Every structure is written in structure tokens, then in C-alpha cells.
Amino acid sequence: MKRARTRRSRILLVTTAVVVAGVAILAWQLLGSGSTAAPGHALAESSSPAVPVGLKVVEVSSTGVTLNWSPQAAGPTVTYQVYRDGKAIGTSTKTSFFDHTVRPATTYTYAITALTAAGQPGRLGPAVTVTTPKVRKPAPVSVLAAFPDGVNTGYQKAPGYPGHLTDCSHVTIRSNSTYKYCDFPDGVYIGSAGSHPVNVSFIGCRFASNAVGDANVADYGDGISFSYVTFEPSTVPASSEPASPHAQAVALGQGYQYGIDKRYAGSLTVDHADFWGFEEAIQFGDSSQAKPVIIKNSWFHNSRDPGTTDHTDGILENYGGLSYMTFDHNTIVGNGNTNALALQGSQPYDHVTITRNYFSGYGYMVNSGANGSSANMVFTDNVWGTDIEPTFGPLYGDTMYTTPGLGGVWHGNTISVRPGTTWMAAGNNGLHWWPTDGNPSSPSQIIGHSSDYPGP
User: Fold this and answer.
1) From the CB of residue 213, how many other CB atoms can be counted at a distance below 10 Å?
2) Which of 10, 14, 242, 290 sits between 20 and 30 A of 2, alpha carbons compared?
3) Separation CA 327–CA 381 (nearest Å)
4) What is the mean pLDDT of residues 231-260?
């Protein structure tokens, strides 16, 4: 008599999750009564990973969903498996995950589990559900109308400008003096290494220079202010000032190195100024609460051709360790190869306010202090314009805005896609700019965010 053969069933295990009563459960967890580990992979309770908790959606757009969750107790690095609608879509060793494969106007359910040392999934934590928004249509904006340009900066726009300038080429700058509607056709020295004039104001003045390797204005003073002034090359007619960021650059040998080279630890204020034809429009190395640097309402544009030697910046600080600087409501646009705003020093900065500026172009567009210890850095209501594509990206160093405890603030910054832009999708227009954003990888990519940066 033959023995009856026992039929053996085969079970195919797949790493899939379903949602039951709002809780995500791995498919194999439904097969057994109370089983918490995949068949053939039973775990001792002490080695079973803790169930991840605190899963939430921290940012959602039509093209991406950002998740984060609570960290587990101190111990070995944990690898988390992320599930979307029951299917594993990736892993993370951090307590965050970015899903860039979503579609607009679609609802998704996410859950996560911690993997064992052998790579097996444990229990899934509570699930979250999110619906991505529809693709946002760009709002018509004329954002540049609100920023400094040739209409509201420079000596010809000074209140009370008489229609002509007085030649001041032989004037010696003295303390407690105001110079109005002066032409300095070969630049000017404010004091010297051994002489430091104080409380000097320039209103409605023109500073012209062909100091290829030197300053248009060398500032050795304290309490120096410039209001409605123009800094330009002396080698070209004043009427030839370019307005378009795409205009032919003045040749390196026809421009000047620094518009203002601040050579002494005094305060400096620049307001409604017009800079062009420079290597660096402003260079400084000192600022403090008692003697701050304040640059506002000014237009930085059309730097000189860098050739093979220039490292072109709009505003440059090269040392670090400074504090109480303010950059408020400026337009800094150009083809420079370094930074529009270049806080490049190796020592940390403190109490720096960068607000309401329009930036476009350069290498890394903004370097607001890449030192990891810079503190109390405020970057608010600025606009990343697409007039010129930054060579490497919009921001060099984001640590001061993304690290808890440093007092950094990033809020209200947006993207403005200018008419005729081909390197940035129009769908980014008006979206929020985050400190972690880079240049788009393709002209169709949406990199902006529908919500503001939540902070570290």
C-alpha cells in the first residue's frame, strides 16, 4: 500500500505592508497569530528593533514628500525601511526621507519599520496619509519693480540733484564734513593708514576709477556714509552704463578692483548706491555692534570681465569673526565667478541680517558664512532671481540655518522665474526657496516648495 504524499504548500513572502484600522502591518504579519517576525526569522524579544514612532509629513509639494520621525534610543545606527501604499520604496539611516517619485494631486500612505541587523523588517509604526497638491501655476509677478535699479540709485537720483556735479578731485576729506554732488574722477582716499577721518557723508557723488588693481575709494575712516552715489569706470562715458545683466562686460583693464575698500575698523553705511565695472564692489574686514557695516537699497550689477585673474564678488568679507552686519534691500545680479554676497571668512560670524535682497547669478550665488559655528544668522524675504543661472548653486553652506541651537532664521525666501528663462521651470515662480535647495537638474524640475522652510 502506497503512502499518501503530503502536499506541501509554498508561501511567497514579499515585503509589502497594508493598513488595517489606521495601522500599517507587514503582509506576513497577517499570516500568523500574533507573530511579529517573518517566518523562518523569529527574533528574540531583546534583539527585535523598536517600533518607529512619530512619523509625520513635514513638507509636501506636487513633486515630493518629506517625512521625518522620532529617533530611537542611543545605540547602534538603525536602518529604516520606508513603505508607500504597502510597497517598500527606500531606506534611510537618518530619521527622515524624501520621496521624489510622487505625482501631483495623488493620495499616498506611508509607514516605516526598523530593520534588524540581518536586514529583516520589524513591526511597522503608525501610518500617515498625505495628498500632494496640484501643479501650481506661476503667478504673474513684476518682482524687480520693488528692488533697486537705475531708477532709484546713483547720484542722478539724489534728492535735490542740481543736474551737474562739481569737480572735487583736489579735495582733502576732513572729519565732520558732508560732500554733496561732487565728482571724484580718479577716486578718493578717505584718510590714510595714519589718519582716520570721522563722521563723513557723501551725497549725490560720482566716484570713477581705472584702478585695475586698487580701490576706487579707499576708506580709512569711521562713521563714513554714502547716499545716492555712483561707482563706475573712468574709462567709459557715464552715459554708457549698462542696465541689462546680459550686456557686454567692461574689459578687465578698463574697470577697477574695489568700489569701496574698507581699510579701517570704523562703521560704514551705504545707501541707494550704484556699483558697476568692479571686481569687488565693496570689500571690508571689520564690523561690530559699536561700528557696524550696513549696506542697503543699492544696485550691484555688470562687474568687469574677470579674465583669468579675478575672483569677482558683489560684496566681499574675507576674514570672518565679524558681527552686526546688515544687508537690506539690495539688488546683486551678475556673471561674477564667486559670490553675489561673499562672507567667505574662516572664523564664525554672529548677528548678521540678510533681508529683502534680490540675488541672481555668480558662482555660488550667496555665501552667508559657511563656518559651521556661525550664529544668529537671519536670512529672510530674499528673492532668488533667474536672470542668470548660478554656476554651482544658490547657496554655499547651509549649516547656520539647518542646525538647531545656532539661532539661524530662514524665512520668506522665494524664487522669481524671469520671462525668457530656459534653465528653470516656470512652475517654480513664486515658490519658497529653502536653504537646502540646489540648481535644478533639468529645466523641467520643480525645486521650489509650496510651504516655507520649517527650520531645523
Assistant:
1) 9
2) 10
3) 12
4) 91
